[in-house]
Structures are given as C-alpha cells and as structure tokens.
Here is the input.
Amino acid sequence: MTDPEQSPPAAPPPAAPTEDAPATPSTPPVSPASPLRWWRPLLFVVALAFGCWGAWKTFAPAPAVPSAGQHARVEALEQQVATLRRSDQISRDANRDLQGTLAERDEEIAGLRADVAFYERFVGATGQRRGLTVHQLNLRPQSGQAWHFTTTLTQNLNRGAVSSGEVTLSVEGTRDGKLQTLAWDDLRQQPDAPGIAYSFKYFEEVGGDLVLPAGYQPLRVVVRLAPKSGAAVEQSFTWADATGRSAPEA
Here is the structure.
C-alpha cells in the first residue's frame, strides 16, 4: 500500500539542450523596419480618397445641359443684339449725314439772304442808284498756272435799260524782280483775244480762264468794262482780295 501522506515523486528535470538541436522561440520577432508599418496607413488613405471620390460622383449634381428651346432662345437674343447694334449704327450714320445736310442748308440760306440783300440794293425802291460797275471779282486756281475768274457786274441807274459790252482783265505784278503788266492777250495766250461778252439789266456774273507765266508774281488785277455805248469802266482788286492769297501756287 501506498502511504497517502507520501508526496508524489518530483518531475524529472528538463533535458539540457544539445548542440545539434537549437532552441526555437515561442513568438517570431518583428523587425522595426518592417514595410507593414507604412503600407497599412497608405492603403487606408487611398481607400478613403477613393471612397470620397465615388461618393462625390454619386451624389454630385449633374451639369445642366441646355435644351433645344434654350438654344433657340439664346440664338434669338443674339440676333436681337446684332439687329440693335446695326440699327444703332444706321441711326448714327443717318444723324451724321443729317448734320452735314443741315450745315449745307445753313450755308445755302446764308447765301440766299446775302443774294436777297444784294438784289434789294439794286432793284428795291430804296436802293442807291449806281451806273455800270464791277461789284466783285473772284479768282480760283486751276491746273498749272491757269486760273478761273468770275466777276459780278451791276447797274441800276437806268432801270429797265439793257447794258451790254465786253469784259477784259489785266494783271500787274513782278517777274525776275521787274514790274510787268500782262494784258488780256497775254492772259488768254491768244493774239487779239476777244473779251467776255455781257448783257444785263441789273446784274450779271461772267467768267473765264487766264494763264500766268511761270515765275510771275501778281499783285493787282484790273477789270475793264467796255460798253457798247458810253465810256469804259475800270476797277482794280488786289490779288489777295481776289484770291485770298498773296501769290499763285507754282
């Protein structure tokens, strides 16, 4: 029989490890530089971003696509804008033309008023009685040395009587530093050139052309009226008064 108070036999001591069988640890070691520590957060961030992008694509409102009616409305508005711009341009052009026309009409009215005043002086009952005279002389340049002249002749001394005759011009000036007078034949470049005929009761405007030689500097123009009856009438005008300049263009 076994004694109950007798302690159980002690467990045999563990065998000492031999050199042929190395000891195996119970938990595998983890290196501090293991890549799992970096890939896990990165994968989480990528997954979170992808999830946010998917949610935005799912719940974001789709861009509005204009309908055919909206396209037509836009085209109609664009056409209206283009029409209004064209209409405004036409109005501006018409207004500019109208302003020019009004300016021309104002000039014509001023000229007509001057003509009326001129007529009243010679035809009106209170007009001053004067015999045959040269009212004014105008000279305008043509090509080269040619000039065109117009002169207004008047008379109201013999009312109802016809005054007729010829008009000739002469020009006084200098050439090569010397005084020189150009006669009617010289100005017309024609020997025995006939004068410009006139015939009127109260007034008449007659004109013609004349040519100055190169290098000639005119100073004064003399208009000579040779009536068929009565003495000749001469009246002089400075070149500046007749042309608005001191010398003709070369």
